[in-house]
């Protein structure tokens, strides 16, 4: 809408154009002073990507934000979430439970895994 006002301001007063479009002049002038921001800042997007990759693709937006804060970068969680989404980064979900039927034993010799046998199961 502000581009339209800019195009028409040579032919008519900004006040008249804003009245016709039912918008405030102040929002037009604020948009002019604000300028255009890039969709996502390259440096911040790169930092988010690095933190995400360092986590081996397991951190969500909250943990990426915490990692960035520990590095001294103040950024909001929703911005981190948006940057992760815009860059096409996807989490690798890890199961907290072992596979069904997998017996995991922890002993003095370390962790061993084998197939679980049920006591009443016939072989």
Describe the model.
The protein is mainly alpha-helical and 123 residues long. Helices cover 47% and strands 10% of the residues. It contains six helices and two strands; from the N terminus they run ααααααββ. It has a two-stranded antiparallel ribbon with strand order 1-2. A hairpin with a 2-residue loop joins strand 1 and strand 2. Helix 4 crosses helix 5 and helix 5 crosses helix 6. The longest helix is centred in the middle third of the chain and has 13 residues. It is elongated, with a radius of gyration of 28 Å. It starts with a helix and ends in an 8-residue tail after the last strand. The model has no long low-confidence stretch (mean pLDDT 78).
DSSP strand (E) fraction?
5-15%
Oligomer: single chain
Q: How many E strands?
A: 2
Shape: elongated
Q: Any idea what the radius of gyration is?
A: 28 Å
The helix/strand series, from N terminus to C terminus, equals: HHHHHHEE
Kindly state the mean pLDDT as a whole number? 78
- Terminal Cα span: 75 Å
Instruction: Give, in spatial order, the strands making up the sheet with the most strands.
Output: 1-2
Task: Estimate percent helicity.
Answer: 40-55%
User: What structural class is derived from the secondary structure elements?
Assistant: mainly alpha
Largest beta-sheet details: 2 strands, antiparallel
* Low-confidence segments: none
Tally of DSSP helical segments: 6
Task: Sum up the structure in keywords.
single chain; two-stranded antiparallel sheet; elongated
List the helices and strands and how they pair.
Blueprint: H1 2-8, H2 14-21, H3 25-34, H4 42-54, H5 61-70, H6 77-86, E1 102-107, E2 110-115
Antiparallel strand pairs: 1-2
Helix pairs in contact: 4-5, 5-6
């Amino acid at each position: 809408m502000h581009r339209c006002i800019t195009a028409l301001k040579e032919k008519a007063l900004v006040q008249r154009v804003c009245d016709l479009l039912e918008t405030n002049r102040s929002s037009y002038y604020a948009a002019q002073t604000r300028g255009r921001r890039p969709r996502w800042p390259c440096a911040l997007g790169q930092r988010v990507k690095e933190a995400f990759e360092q986590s081996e693709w397991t951190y969500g937006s909250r943990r990426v934000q915490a990692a960035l804060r520990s590095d001294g970068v103040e950024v909001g969680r929703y911005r981190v979430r948006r940057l992760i989404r815009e860059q096409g980064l996807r989490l690798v979900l890890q199961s907290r439970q072992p596979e069904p039927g997998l017996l995991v034993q922890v002993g003095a010799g370390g962790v061993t895994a084998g197939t679980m046998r049920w006591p009443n199961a016939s072989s």
